[in-house]
Amino acid sequence: MKWRHNHPLESADVLKHCDVSDKVAEKFKSLYASGHLPFSALETHKCDLYLEDDIHYKVKAADRFYGPDYGNSLLVNCSNRNLDKLQHMQDNLAHVVCNSNCLTSAGPLLQSLHSLPVRQWINFKLAKLCYLATSFQQPGYLADLISPYSQSRLL
Fold first, then answer.
1. Mean pLDDT (whole number) for 120-139
2. pTM here?
3. 12, 81, 13, 21: which is closest to 49 by C-alpha?
4. At 23, which helix (H) or strand (E)?
5. What is the DSSP letter of 93?
6. Around Cβ 147, how many Cβ atoms within 10 Å?
7. Closest by alpha carbon to 116, among 96, 93, 90?
8. CA 140 to CA 91: how far, in whole Å?
9. Out of 2, 7, 12, 94, which residue is the most buried by the measure of CB atoms under 10 Å away?
10. Tens digits of per-residue pLDDT, 56-108?
11. What is the maximal distance between C-alpha atoms in the chain?
12. Tell me, what's the pLDDT at 16?
């Protein structure tokens, strides 16, 4: 029996669904244990990945086997100043995409584009990541780090 695929196997769309390797999961656990936040751990890992193999870096960076994809949930501990800058950028892009003037409120534009404001998007991505980790034990490298909350006394 021969396996034939109707899509390329090395595309970013395929590689983003791979499981993270045990080696990478252990590396992230040690980075967290040494005091890194998710963003700094990911940046450290990306730098190491580039230094190890700069020629194939782009393919490896898209492959979850070599590195997790936390998305915007990495911005949880970002400063308010930087979040304001990101929100300003998102508002400006919404004006450009919707071809409206800068006096138009960005809220309705974002809503028409089915997009959440930056802070709400970050909270959504983090909640989704926690839900997947606790409900389905996926991704496994995070499921091991999260424990469900249980009340110590009845109210």
1. 80
2. 0.52
3. 21
4. helix 22-33
5. H
6. 8
7. 90
8. 35
9. 94
10. 877 777 776 777 765 555 566 778 888 888 888 888 888 888 888 888 888 88
11. 62
12. 56
DSSP 55: T
Write out 98-113 in H/E/C secondary structure.
Answer: CCCCCCCCHHHHHHHC
- The distance from CA 25 to its chain's CA centroid, rounded to whole angstroms, is 15
Positive or negative CA dihedral for 11, 28, 71, 44? negative
Name the one residue in this structure whose structure tokens are 């003037």. Answer: 101
Whole-number Å distance between alpha carbons of 46 and 40: 10
Two tokens, residue 86: 């990101």
- The CA distance from 24 to 15, in Å, is 15
Burial label for 28, CB within 10 Å (0-12, 13-18, 19+), is: buried
Residue 53 and residue 47 in contact, taking contact as beta carbons nearer than 8 Å: no
CB atoms within 10 A of CB 116: 16
Tell me the per-residue pLDDT of 4-39, one tens digit each, with 9 for 90 and over. Answer: 655 555 555 555 556 677 888 788 778 878 887 766
